[in-house]
Amino acid sequence: IFFSTYKKYFASIEAYKENFPVVTGELGPTFTGCYSSQSKVKMANRVGEDRLFMAEAVTALAVEKTGMPDYNDQFEVAWERILFNQFHDILPGSNTPESRDHAMGAFEEAMGCVMAASGAALRALADAIDTSSFETPFVPLESRSEGGGQGLNVDQRHRFRLPGTERGVGKTRLLHFFNPTGFDREEVLEATVWDWPGDPVRVAAYDVQGNALPVVATTSRREDWSHIRTDLLIQAKVPALSYTTIRIEESEKQSFCFSALPPDPRVHLFRPMVLENDLVRVEFDTTTLAIKSYVNKKTGKELLGPAGGRFILYREGTVPRGGCGWQEGILMDPKDLHTAAKVLLKSPVRGGALRKSLEYELHYNDSVVTVQPQLDAGSPILELNVSARWREVADREGTPRLSFRADLPNTPDYWLSDSQIGVEKREPDTTRDYCSRNFFHAQGGMTLLSDTKYGYRGCEQRMEVTLLRSSSRPDPFPEVGDRMFRIGLVEAAEDAVELKRLGQRFVHRDLPYASNRAHKGYLPLESSFLQVSGAIVTAIKVAEDKNGTILRLIAVRDECCDAQVSMPGLKAAQVVDLAEQAVGECTVTDGKVCVPMGANQTVALRLITK
Question: What angle do CA 382, 453, 55 make, to 5 degrees?
Answer without folding.
Answer: 90
